[in-house]
Design a protein that fits this description.
By secondary structure, the protein is mainly beta. The protein folds into 2 domains: 52 residues, no CATH class; 307 residues, Beta Barrel (Porin), CATH 2.40.160.50. The protein has 1 helix and 18 strands. Strands 3-4-5-6-7-8-9-10-11-12-13-14-15-16-17-18 form a 16-stranded antiparallel β-barrel.
C-alpha cells in the first residue's frame, strides 16, 4: 500500500498537514515542503511538494563507549530502484572482532502484495561476558554465519505481519585465553513469525513514533541446543509543544535455553545503564524521559535528552537482578540524509555505582 492512500476519501475538514508530513517523513527518503488542495472534476486533489533526500552514499559507522570501540563502513541505498527498497553492504571492525554483512529489503510494488527481505552476515566475535559491575565471568571466541529470508505483509493500515526463515552456524574458535567457554557450537534452522503496529506523528521539529511489536521464534538445532524465544518491544513519543516531547521505551526477551551462546547484551532491553558486554538470558527494560530541541538548521536538529531507566535481567552470571539509573545525552538528527542520528550519552547505574559512556555516528544509540 502506498503510504498516502490512507488520505483518499478524507473530508477536508478532517485534514491535518502534520499527519501528511509524518507519513512522508516516515518513508525515510523524502522531506515534505508544503501541501495544498487543487480543485479537479473528480473533487479535491491533495498535492504534496517534497524534496528527495540523499539516499545513495557510503557512510561511516562509529560506536564507542566505556572500554570499547567499533568502526565500520557501509554503502547504503535507501531508495533502490526508485521503489523505497533498502540495500546495505559493508563491514565493521572493533574491540571484540569483525563482521561483514549484506541486507536487502524489498517493498511491494502494488497494494496487496507482500514485501520480502534477506540478510547475510559472517564474522568473528571475541566475547567477554561481564556482570553489572564489569567483573569478567566468561571469555571465548566464535565464528558466526547467518542467512535469513523473510516476508512481510501490511494487513491493514499501520499493522504488519512478518515471517522469516534462517540458518545459523556458530563455531568455537578458542585459544589458551578462554575462560568458562561453552562446551560446543551450534547449527540452527529458525522460524520467526511476528506482528507489529506502528504510526508516526510530526510536530514540526521531531518525527515521533508510537509502536508495538511481538515476536516468537523457534530455533531447531541440527547440532547444539534447540530453543524458543519471545520478544517484545514498544515505544511511545508525545509532543507537549513542538520540539519538546516525552519518550517512553520498553523492551524484553525470554529464551528457553540455558546455552551461553544465546545470551544477549542490554541492547535487547533498550537500556544503556549496563555495560554493553553484560550478558543475560532474559530481560525486561523500561525507559522514560524528556527531549528538547536546542538548534534547528537546514542540515538537521540538535537536541538534549534526559531519562530514567530500569531493567530486570536473569542469567547464570548475575542470577535475578534489577538495575536502574539516570541517563543524559545529545542527539543530532540529519535532515538531508536518509541516515539515523548521531549522538553521545552518559548513564549512571545506581546499583553498581558505575558510569557508562557512549558515542555513535551513523546509527542510533
Amino acid at each position: 500500500m502506498f503510504p498516502l492512500e490512507r488520505f483518499i476519501g478524507m473530508e477536508r475538514s478532517a485534514f491535518d498537514q502534520n499527519e501528511v508530513f509524518a507519513v512522508v517523513q516516515d518513508m525515510r527518503v523524502l522531506n515534505p515542503i508544503s501541501t495544498e488542495f487543487i480543485e479537479t472534476t473528480d473533487g479535491l486533489t491533495l498535492q504534496v511538494t517534497i524534496e528527495e533526500r540523499w539516499t545513495i552514499f557510503p557512510f561511516p559507522v562509529i560506536m564507542a563507549g566505556s572500554g570499547e570501540a567499533n568502526f565500520g563502513l557501509f554503502l547504503m541505498d535507501s531508495n533502490a530502484f526508485g521503489q523505497r527498497d533498502m540495500l546495505a553492504l559493508g563491514g565493521s571492525y572493533g574491540s571484540y572482532g569483525w563482521s561483514a554483512m549484506a541486507v536487502y529489503n524489498h517493498n511491494p510494488r502494488h497494494s496487496g502484495l507482500p514485501g520480502w527481505n534477506t540478510l547475510f552476515m559472517y564474522g568473528r566475535n571475541n566475547r567477554e561476558d561481564v556482570d553489572s559491575g564489569e567483573n569478567l565471568y566468561r571469555q571465548y571466541a566464535i565464528n558466526r554465519l547467518r542467512f535469513s529470508l523473510g516476508l512481510n505483509y501490511l494487513f491493514i493500515d499501520l499493522i504488519t505481519g512478518s515471517i522469516s526463515f534462517s540458518f545459523s552456524d556458530i563455531s568455537l574458535n578458542n585459544d589458551d585465553n578462554a575462560i568458562n567457554s561453552p562446551e560446543h557450537g551450534a547449527r540452527l534452522l529458525g522460524i520467526n513469525p511476528s506482528l507489529s503496529m506502528r504510526q508516526s506523528s510530526w510536530d514540526g521539529v521531531f518525527l515521533s513514533q508510537q509502536s508495538i511489536s511481538l515476536g516468537y521464534s523457534y530455533n531447531h538445532a541440527i547440532t547444539g541446543s534447540s530453543y524458543h524465544q519471545i520478544d517484545f518491544r514498544g515505544s511511545y513519543d508525545h509532543s507537549f509543544v513542538p520540539g519538546f516531547r516525552l519518550n517512553i521505551r520498553s523492551s524484553g526477551v525470554w529464551k528457553s535455553t540455558s546455552d551461553p551462546l544465546f545470551e544477549d547484551g542490554p541492547q535487547r532491553a533498550q537500556v544503556s545503564i549496563l555495560p554493553r558486554n553484560f550478558s543475560a538470558r532474559h530481560y525486561a527494560g523500561f525507559t522514560t524521559g524528556l527531549e528538547k530541541h536546542l538548534l534547528i538548521t537546514r542540515w538537521g536538529t540538535l537536541s538534549v535528552q534526559g531519562s530514567w531507566q530500569g531493567v530486570f535481567s536473569y542469567g547464570p552470571i548475575s542470577d535475578f537482578e534489577f538495575n536502574h539509573g539516570p541517563t543524559a545525552g545529545l542527539q543530532l538528527y540529519l535532515s538531508r540524509l536518509a541516515l539515523p542520528a548521531m549522538g553521545g550519552n552518559i548513564a549512571y547505574n545506581m546499583n553498581s555505582g558505575l558510569f557508562q559512556f557512549s558515542f555513535s555516528i551513523g546509527m542510533s544509540l
